[in-house]
Amino acid sequence: MTMHTVPAAAVRSAEARVAGYDWQALAEEMSFYGCAVMEKLLTSEECREIAGRYPDESHFRSHVHMARHGFGKGEYRYFRYPLPELIGGLRTALYPRLAAVANDWNERMGIAQRYPDEHAAFLKQCHEQGQTRPTPLLLQYGPGDFNCLHQDLYGDLAFPLQVAILLSEPDKDFTGGEFVLTEQRPRMQSRAEVVPLRQGDAVAFAVHNRPVQGSKGSYRVNLRHGVSRIRSGLRHTVGIIFHDAK
């Protein structure tokens, strides 16, 4: 087993969890709105366990203070390999479902890139291009913190969908801090989507582009995501990004 390999039992458990959702409905929602919510992907106990890892640097490869880079205010840490089994299992189990959406989108947008059926095969492609660093991350926001609108691309090979899981309970652990998605449409004003999440809910969303059906076929719209200002308390989120970074 390499450091990138997720234990089989963790993958089976995650696959059973992921299979409980209506993926046809989720795919349609992603295609129409650029995002879709998977309610209660994690339990409250699992959320607390993951968030509780934040102070322990041994779990992470790097620590980023967002204000230093103009990303907003707040901080996050990238997990190191091997990933925590729960996160690694979900990354492996979610990928095939999202790869089907990504391949459909690329076909509609006239993009030649196609994604393999299994996450291990996609990671192999990343590593062959020198993208070997894990990208799943744990974010922490306090009062006044926010995340500017952005896209998580990290290299030449970037998977076009990602998943964020809210680990804290709104109105109990924190206030404010809504997940926001914006869509820039050609020759039109931008559209904003505010996504309500509860503790343990996950949102799958487009990282960069998605296709929209027009009168002359599909065209691309450009998306960015962020988090609005935290009014009070502490907000933790785990982000599952499927490509590795240079």
Automatic annotation (TrEMBL):
<dbReference type="InterPro" id="IPR005123">
    <property type="entry name" value="Oxoglu/Fe-dep_dioxygenase_dom"/>
</dbReference>
<keyword id="KW-0479">Metal-binding</keyword>
<feature type="domain" description="Fe2OG dioxygenase">
    <location>
        <begin position="132"/>
        <end position="245"/>
    </location>
</feature>
<dbReference type="InterPro" id="IPR018655">
    <property type="entry name" value="DUF2086"/>
</dbReference>
<dbReference type="GO" id="GO:0046872">
    <property type="term" value="F:metal ion binding"/>
</dbReference>
<keyword id="KW-0560">Oxidoreductase</keyword>
<keyword id="KW-0408">Iron</keyword>
<dbReference type="GO" id="GO:0016491">
    <property type="term" value="F:oxidoreductase activity"/>
</dbReference>
<protein>
    <recommendedName>
        <fullName>Fe2OG dioxygenase domain-containing protein</fullName>
    </recommendedName>
</protein>
<dbReference type="Pfam" id="PF09859">
    <property type="entry name" value="Oxygenase-NA"/>
</dbReference>
<comment type="similarity">
    <text>Belongs to the iron/ascorbate-dependent oxidoreductase family.</text>
</comment>
